[in-house]
Amino acid sequence: MASSGRRAPQERGKAAERTRERILAAAVEEFGAKGYAGARTAAIAARAGVNQQLISYYFGGKQGLVEELRRRWARSQENVTPPGATYAESVVAHLDATLDNPDWSRLVIWQALGDGSSPESDDEWAAAQRDRLRQAVERTRRRQKEGEITGELDAEFVLLVAYALAFAPIALPRMVEGIVGADPLSKDYREWVVGQLDRMTRRQP
Fold first, then answer.
1. Where does residue 133 rank: exposed (0-12), middle (13-18), buried (19+ CB within 10 A)?
2. CB–CB of 197/162 below 8 Å?
3. More confident residue, 128 or 152
4. What is the pLDDT of residue 183?
C-alpha cells in the first residue's frame, strides 16, 4: 500500500505534465494561425481537449502561454546546429528547423510583425531577438574571416538572405511555389536553397 501511495503523486505529476504539453502544442497551432491578438484561450483549450481554466492554472492565461513558447523557441535555437558545423550544415539545420515546424515559424513571423502581448514582454522579446541576430551576424563574419565563405558580401546581407529563404515558404507559400515551381516545404526546395546559397557564398580561389 505504501509503495502504491508513493507512485500516485508521480502519476499525477506525469498527467499534469502531459496536460501542459497538450496545451502548449495547441497554443502553437492557435498562435501560429491567428497571432497573439486573434488567438483565444477557449480555442486553445478546445484544440488541447482540456478545460479552459487549466490554461490559467498552469500558465496564468494567454500572456503566460506566449511567454513560455518564446522561451522554448529561444532554447531550441541554441541547439539547432552542433558545435563545429560548417556553414552549409548550419543552413541545412536552420532550414529544416523552420520548415519542419511551420506552426512555430508562423508564430515567430507574427511576433516579428509586432503582434505582441504586453509592451514590457514584447520589448524584452525584441531585445533578446536582436541580441541573437547580432550574434548570428558575428558568426557569419567570423566564417568570412576564416575563409569559409566569401568576404565579398556583407555578413548582414548573407544572413538576411538565408533568413528570407527559410521563412518565405511559411509567409509566402504560393509566391514561392509560383517562382520556384516546387512545394516550398519539400526536399526539392531545401536542396535548391542550400545549393544556391552555397554558390553565392562560396569563397573564390
1. middle
2. yes
3. 152
4. 95
Distance of alpha carbon 182 from alpha carbon 57, whole angstroms: 44
SS3 content of the chain, % helix, strand, coil (to 5): 80, 0, 20
pLDDT at 32: 94
Phi, psi (deg, nearest 5) at residue 114:
90, 15
Number of C-beta neighbours around residue 175 at 10 A: 12
Q: Which grid coordinates belong to 68?
A: 513560455
User: Considering only CA atoms, which of 47, 160, 60, 66 is closest in space to residue 104?
Assistant: 66
CA distances from 171 to 25, 97, 185, 190 (A): 20, 15, 12, 16
Asked if 101 contacts 67 with a C-beta cutoff of 8 angstroms, the reply is no
Distance CA 10, CA 144 (A): 52
Contacts of 41 (CB under 8 A, 6+ apart): 52, 55, 56, 61, 62, 65
